[in-house]
Amino acid sequence: MTSFAAEPEHVTEIRRQLARWVAEKMPREKRREWDREATWDRTLFREIAEMGLIGLTIPEEYGGQGEDIYAAAAVIEELCQGGPSMAGPFIHAAFYGGLNISENGSKAQKEELLPKLARGELFLAYGLSEPNVGGDLPSVGTRVERQGNEIVINGAKRWCTGADWADYIYCLCRSGEPGARHGNLTFVLVPTNAKGVSMQAIEHANLRYTHSMDVYLDEVRLPESAIVGGPEKWNKGWDALAGRALDVEKIEITAVAFGLARAALEEAWRYAGEREQFGKRIGQHQAIAHKLVTARTKLAACRHMLYHAAWLASTGQPCSAETAMAKLYVADTGVEIGLACQQVIGAYGLSDAYDIERNLRDLLGMPIVGGSSDMQKNNLARMWRL
């Protein structure tokens, strides 16, 4: 399929290399194993880093390839053809780490962290949500206070995916009185091995490349240099959250939804060409053909939405509305595509004999994670001054 414009040649070459790599290194039996054990293969991930792909969100002067959001979205899409087990860690390094530190980090943080991120030696987890805070992030209750040249953090974070193996938590904290909301927020890089940090796993049904974690922060004492952007960014966390990095965050999760929907459709399409019932391949039955043709049409629309938003972000153009529309449409439509594909595969689609069972589980979460569909609608209504 083509998008709104011809795809850059280097992106097409990345796709070609990754398609071969996924087929060779992520066979179905390994995908099932990783999903059952909620884990991923660090040795295998090093090969992705060695290809230079994490560097697609990192400037060249820090060991990256130079920022290319379009290409990074394509990497996620292709990795998702083998499930989330490599796409997830890629996002933790390239987006949670590379993009956020490139956009918001201090000079010292960039010099220390970005080369390690580009080499795949470092991972970040998000510490945004809390037990009583989901979409309303300005209401976070985790407190950070200044004490001399140090900061002290107390509170709890929820849904910190991968915090048990990440090196830092990119943690949103309340740094002043709650009444100011947006004006009293600060991001802190919390080392996961810091004194006072403890965790408890949360079992979840989708994106099982890892566990999510409840993270407890009890008198966690850090130097002021742990403030994202340095001490001068105290109370300026909302600017970092609501800026360009959030737009690109929506592209990242949209690329996951699209990649999973594409994987589901390709598997169902193959199945319909092989499975015979009532004397012919099931794809020749009108009921099945209509499901698959409708799903493929919707997938083409999803691709346009995703890569138009990614192109705008890559070229530095305003894209808040386009990324929100893409997240909303691709997440919701991905669920429709996944359900249709499972129906095509039938009873086998409820077993682990095919990837559709896992892909559908993952797709069902897409309208929730990374900013729910209802939140995207609220944001778009506000942007469009409804």
Automatic annotation (TrEMBL):
Q: Which segments cross the bilayer?
A: none
Q: Kindly list the cofactors needed.
A: FAD
Respond yes or no to whether keyword Plastid is given for this record.
no
Please, which domain of life does this record's source organism belong to? Bacteria
UniProt keyword Flavoprotein present: yes
List, alphabetically, the Pfam families matched: Acyl-CoA_dh_1, Acyl-CoA_dh_M, Acyl-CoA_dh_N
Location of the Acyl-CoA oxidase/dehydrogenase middle domain: 125-219
**MF-aspect GO terms:** acyl-CoA dehydrogenase activity; flavin adenine dinucleotide binding
Stretches assigned to the Acyl-CoA dehydrogenase/oxidase N-terminal domain = 11-121
Keywords from the named record: FAD, Flavoprotein, Oxidoreductase
Concerning InterPro entries, the annotation shows: Acyl-CoA_Oxase/DH_mid-dom (IPR006091), Acyl-CoA_Oxase/DH_mid-dom_sf (IPR046373), AcylCo_DH-like_C (IPR036250), AcylCo_DH/oxidase_C (IPR009075), AcylCoA_DH/ox_N (IPR013786), AcylCoA_DH/ox_N_sf (IPR037069), AcylCoA_DH/oxidase_NM_dom_sf (IPR009100)
CDD domains (UniProt xref)? ACAD (cd00567)
Location of the Acyl-CoA dehydrogenase/oxidase C-terminal domain: 235-382
What start and end residues bound the annotated signal peptide?
none
Family the entry assigns: Belongs to the acyl-CoA dehydrogenase family.
- Designated name of the protein: Acyl-CoA dehydrogenase
* Organism whose genome encodes this protein: Hyphomonas hirschiana VP5
